[in-house]
Amino acid sequence: MADVTLTNVNKIYGEGPSAVHAVQDLNLKIDDGEFVALLGPSGCGKTSTLRMIVGLESISSGSVHFDDRNVSALEPQDRNVAMAFETYALYPNFTVEQNLAFPLEVRGFSADEQKKRAQNVAELLRITDLLDAYPPALSGGQQQRVSLGRALIREPDVFILDEVMSHLDAHLKFQMLFDLKRLHRELGRTMIYVTHDQVEALALSDRVAVMSNARLQQVGDRNTLYNAPANVFVADFIGEPPTNFFQAQAVESDGDLRLAVDDAKFTLHLSEKTRAAVKAHGGARFIAGIRPQNLTPATASDATSGQTTATLSAKVSINEYLGERSILTAHRGPVSFRALAPPETRSAPDEIVELAYDPANVMVFDPETEDLVH
Amino acid sequence: MSDIVRGDPDTYPAWFQNKKTTRPLIVSRWVPIFLVGVPVLVLLAIVIYPTIWMFYHSLRDTNIQGLFMGNHSYIGFENYATVLSSDRFQDSLVHLVQYLTFGAVFQVILGTVLALTLYEFVKSNAIRTTVLILMVLPMMLPPSIVGTLWRFLLTPSNGAVNQALLDLGLISAHIEWFNAGVSLWSIIIADTWNWTALPLLIVYSGRVSLPPAVYEAARVDGASQWKVMRRVTLPMLKEVIAIAFILRFTDAFKFVDLVYVMTSGGPAQSSELPTYIAFQRGIREFAIGEAAAYAIVIFAISAILITLFLKYMKRVMKAQGFA
Ligand SMILES: Nc1ncnc2c1ncn2[C@@H]1O[C@H](COP(=O)(O)OP(=O)(O)O)[C@@H](O)[C@H]1O
Ligand SMILES: [Mg+2]
User: Fold this and answer.
1) What is the dihedral sign for C-alpha A141, A144, A150, A153?
2) Is A13 among the domain residues?
3) Does the beta carbon of A58 lie inside 6 Å of ligand 1?
4) Could you tell me if A207 and A331 lie in one domain?
5) Cross-chain Cβ contact A93/B238 below 8 Å
6) I want to staple B286 with a disulfide (CB 3.0 to 4.6 A). Which of B64, B86, B138, B262 is the partner?
7) Are residues A39 and A54 in the same domain?
8) Is B310 on the interface with A (CB under 8 A)?
9) Residue A373 lies in a domain
10) What is the DSSP letter of A249?
């Protein structure tokens, strides 16, 4: 078992004008036994990062340590890591069982032990009926589970799982997320899980590392990413539906600082804490953000609950009914934004509704750096 | 007007419909007839007609004179009886087995070893390409040149090969390369030099197209290079190696040229292969009927062997879910 430390890691593919800087100045420490998800849109450098940790790709600059051991120059077989590949990379000439057992075969496990463990892993991944099949005859989701199983059958220092659930249907994915989480608890080993799906990342991991454009944007648990996103990208990427952003101007009247959204002719109230931060930050123009979840139709109970809520009226143009909730798309002048409503919400087109929000949930970002003002 | 076939837009394939074109598919009716007809005629002329012709004459006492005068008569399977009962043919079958084993099979093994060595141990693309080109050069020479070249190299008294072996101290007296019992080996040596590059090329290109991700998985799984070669690479190349083998195998059944140039089947028919006898009987001695029977017997043997082999391959591929 090991902790993993990435120090100033860079990956540059190729050279000259066609060079691709796939990972830039990445610093990340993953504790022993921790489950960390690497989350980001496709092409942001997640796989490249993993491949450097595993040892399949040379590190352009920087270093990778397992505990105190610098493994940057070691071959994959000398690092004691197990990896499930995005592209499955199954041995086409082996049966599923042989694929699962190959890491054990290589390590000289007895045939009985190989069979027993392959059986166990297959049960976990619900592929027992496929043990005698060959990979080319399997569907994408089935191959994906075999590939995951081949990684899980070992007991390495670090598990590295690259988009291992991308081809599973929602129902199966949900079950497997649960099983993987349980397995992680039982084994207590470090797991690095790459995904572009925030639901997977947030459901599984102790901490999520958000990447974009070759750079690490923020590392944190669910609440941190959700309530204090480091920048506009994280605020936008985490959460569904995405955060509403407004171009806004700081205005002060009677000592009360607010953000005015000029185009839409409304002002956003801020919490005490945010007001102080904005004042300290200085400047007049900002990007304001509020999550649709934190913007809901005002009800009578809001008024009586004594919460410090503010309201904002807008014209509803679309009401998307999604089962357990409805997404309202509202307009104010040329500005449109989304709000979340209880499923029973009925609103006629072009109806004016009153939307309530807690000023503490208004996020403010610097328009130049796009970093959170806090 | 009636020559024009107008396609029905509803039956266009999806990709064509997506082009949002209103232009109908206009083709002259003669285009498809021409495209199919010409190859059919060519096949008829150079394959189908001669084959039927050969079957016909294998059942008749045709010789060159009879062929031109048009007098030959049906003799049933007499030609086949002659062929199958002749010692000359039976000996040539033994030679064929020797040639298949130490020619075709050995060449495929050698080509595979060379191809994989080149791929695994030479990492520079420039060197790889250069080696491949050098290896392929012998394949580009006409058989008459290859045969003549090796006749010179293997000349017992002052040939380069004997001289080199003497200088290296590997032999103490000249090897008589063209004596009975040795001459077929000389042909096999020349043929190996000539053709090993074919299995080499096939296996090499097969290796190049294997998915690199599988090899990365093997590295992470901790497999040694030898283990990967034995358990992953060779099994994955099984089909490709089989194709190389089939090619060398079918060539073996029509292998005449080097025999003709180097030994003419001699001395005393000791290096004759079945096809060479067919050639000799038909083209040199004008026993057309008997030569045709030879050809058909050879065809039957190779057809049976190839069919069995393909059956086996198909079973293997099916088990792996490829077919
Ligand atoms: N072997 C390679 N050679 C050149 N560019 C590469 C290579 N692998 C990845 N890249 C580039 O690096 C960037 C990051 O890729 P990757 O790490 O695969 O992203 P992700 O896994 O987040 O989708 C992409 O722009 C991709 O095109
Ligand atoms: Mg990727």
Assistant:
1) negative
2) yes
3) no
4) no
5) yes
6) B64
7) yes
8) no
9) no
10) E
Q: Does the complex come out with an ipTM higher than 0.95?
A: no
Q: Which fold has domain B85-319?
A: MetI-like fold (1.10.3720)
| Residue of B236, B178, B251 whose CA lies nearest to B203 | B236
CB pairs under 8 A between A and B: 70
Q: Of A181, A207, A237, which residue sits at a domain end?
A: A237
Q: Does A85 touch chain B (CB under 8 A)?
A: yes
Residue B57 has pLDDT above 90, yes or no: no
CB contact under 8 A, A56 and B223: no
Residue B3: pLDDT over 50: no
CA nearest neighbour of A87 among B215, B263, B46: B215
Q: Is A45 helix (H, G, I), strand (E, B) or coil?
A: coil
DSSP B282: I
The answer to whether A56 faces chain B, any CB pair under 8 Å, is yes
Q: Which domain holds residue A224?
A: 4-237
Residues A287 and A214 occupy one common structural domain: no
Give the residue on B whose Cα is nearest the Cα of A106.
B223
- Burial classification of residue B162, based on how many CB atoms lie within 10 Å of its CB (0-12 exposed, 13-18 middle, 19 or more buried): buried
**Cβ–Cβ below 8 Å for B321 and A54:** no
* C-alpha to C-alpha distance for A208 and A221, rounded to whole angstroms: 6
The answer, for A242 touching chain B at a CB cutoff of 8 Å, is no
Q: Is residue A99 assigned to a domain?
A: yes
Handedness of CA A140, A145, A148, A149 (dihedral sign): negative
CATH number at residue A348: 2.40.50.140
**Atom 7 of ligand 1, nearest CA residue:** A13
Ligand 1 site-directed mutation target among A21, A23, A48, most atoms within 8 Å of CB: A48
Residue ranges of domains in chain B: 85-319
CA angle B133, B135, B140 (to 5 degrees): 80
Give pLDDT tens digits for A119-139: 999 998 889 999 999 998 888
**A101 C-alpha to ligand 1 centroid (Å):** 30
Q: Is the dihedral of CA B140, B143, B148, B153 positive or negative?
A: positive
Residues A220, A258 within the same domain: no
Strands of A266-268's sheet, edge to edge? A266-268, A256-261, A244-253, A285-290, A363-365
- Choose among B158, B152, B145: nearest CA to B186: B152
CA distances from A137 to A123, A143, A269, B120, B227 (A): 20, 9, 59, 29, 25
Of A237, A253, A276, which residue sits at a domain end? A237
Q: How many contiguous H segments (helices) and E segments (strands) does chain A have?
A: 10, 20
In sequence order, the 6+-apart residues with CB closer than 8 A to the CB of B248 are B103, B104, B107, B108, B195, B198, B199
| pTM score, whole prediction | 0.77
pLDDT tens digits along B136-177: 999 999 989 999 999 989 888 888 888 888 888 778 777 878
- One domain, residues A325 and A356: yes
Q: Is A117 on the interface with B (CB under 8 A)?
A: no
